[in-house]
């Protein structure tokens, strides 16, 4: 449970941000002390899927969302909340889900996922328990690779021998997040990294990204997705990573190809 902060803590944080430009936005402070309205966004992670509308309690919240698009965060009400997505211009759900107790200070993510036929849905409740003074990046992984093994994901400095380190995000199963929904993201220092993916418990890479920069205060959801047409297996060259970056402007997820195969 998010620790209840006092008004004095809020005032101190606000004063600190004013004085030194701190790492957190005013929205982040509001989330941390549990007074910010709950926010939700949608990630279209269904390769080859149609443009869709994102519905909350049966009404369109964001519309005409294409594959790889990450919508801006939008405020929603607290309490029991139904979510779904439908082909643009319709309200017939391709897939739907439910958050039983939407709470202030939390971020919610809904993902359109591939299925062996049609589409599926993924749900993440992020309590956003970042320290008020922290400038660390936040990371979470999600497995959107249907019928795949569980995955280990390493976010490591270029040139790291993964035999010498533990996975950054372990045993990420299909339709599941690590850390799990309802738990806070993990925290890392900003810097240059590569992403390496193995099947859970293995040290044999099936995916490796090019080097990328993870900025301080970044808020990343790293999603494994199948390359179109390869929904039933997980083999070298058959997954990509989508990185959805949190924020308040609509933006596409960054898609990282596999340097092991050039795909």
From TrEMBL:
Keywords, in A-Z order: Signal
Protein's organism: Paraburkholderia hiiakae
Keyword flag Signal: yes
Protein name in UniProt: DUF4397 domain-containing protein
A Pfam family reported for this protein in Swiss-Prot or TrEMBL: DUF4397
Cross-referenced InterPro entries: DUF4397
Ranges for domain DUF4397: 39-154
Domain of life according to the entry: Bacteria
Signal peptide residue numbers: 1-21
């Amino acid at each position: 449970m998010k620790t209840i902060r006092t008004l004095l803590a809020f005032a101190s944080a606000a004063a600190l941000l004013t004085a030194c430009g701190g790492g957190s936005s005013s929205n982040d402070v509001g989330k941390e002390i549990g007074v910010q309205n709950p926010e939700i966004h949608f990630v279209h992670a269904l390769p080859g899927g149609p443009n869709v509308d994102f519905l909350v309690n049966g009404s369109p919240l964001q519309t005409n969302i294409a594959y790889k698009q990450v919508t801006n965060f939008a405020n929603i009400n607290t309490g029991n909340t139904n979510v779904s997505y439908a082909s643009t211009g319709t309200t017939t759900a391709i897939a739907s889900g439910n958050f039983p107790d939407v709470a202030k200070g939390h971020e919610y993510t809904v993902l359109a996922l591939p299925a062996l036929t049609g589409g599926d849905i993924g749900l993440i409740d992020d309590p956003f328990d970042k320290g008020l003074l922290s400038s660390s990046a936040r990371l979470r992984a999600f497995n959107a690779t249907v019928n795949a093994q569980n995955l280990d994901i390493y976010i490591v400095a270029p040139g790291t021998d993964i035999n010498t380190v533990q996975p950054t995000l372990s045993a990420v199963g299909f339709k599941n997040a690590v850390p799990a929904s309802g738990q806070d993201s993990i925290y890392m220092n900003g810097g240059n990294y590569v992403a390496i993916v193995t099947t859970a418990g293995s040290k044999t890479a099936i995916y490796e990204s090019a080097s990328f920069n993870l900025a301080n205060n970044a808020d990343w959801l790293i999603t494994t997705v199948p390359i179109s047409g390869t929904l039933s297996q997980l083999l070298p060259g058959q997954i990509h990573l989508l990185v959805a970056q949190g924020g308040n402007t609509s933006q596409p997820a960054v898609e990282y190809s596999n340097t092991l195969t050039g795909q």
